[in-house]
Amino acid sequence: VLLIDSEQPILDAMTVMLSDWGCWPRAFTHLQAAEKMIESENYKPDLIISDYRLSGSNTGVDVIRKLQEKWSDKIPALIISGDTDPELLEIIHRQDYYLLHKPVKPARLKKLIHIISVN
After folding, report:
1. What is the pLDDT, as a whole number, of residue 73?
2. Using an 8 Å Cβ cutoff, are 79 and 52 in contact?
3. Burial class for 42, CB neighbours closer than 10 Å (0-12, 13-18, 19+)
4. Confidence label for 119 from pLDDT (cuts 50, 70 and 90)
5. Cα-atom radius of gyration of the chain, to the nearest Å?
6. What are the distances in angstroms from CA 76 to CA 2, 9, 58, 73, 115?
């Protein structure tokens, strides 16, 4: 699982939780670090999880699009957001990304990861 969030404490907590569930998370606070690791290790995740609001001008949707350009097939992606703007919801829906609203309940996240992994 590739994690993108601008807040390191959130990445740390998500990494521990996902590891406890048997996932192998790789966490980054910005796109450039993730791209560097992807290129150096020829890494391809089974799932991308990104917060919607990231530092700088990139959104989670932007980051996922840029990352998916690196692989020939579409990697399942999950956006986490506290934003309920209908326009944002439509953008995420059009991209075929999954969406969870904050605060994210661990049981809902775990169930969604399971659903994604069997599809």
Report:
1. 75
2. yes
3. exposed
4. confident
5. 13
6. 11, 24, 19, 10, 11
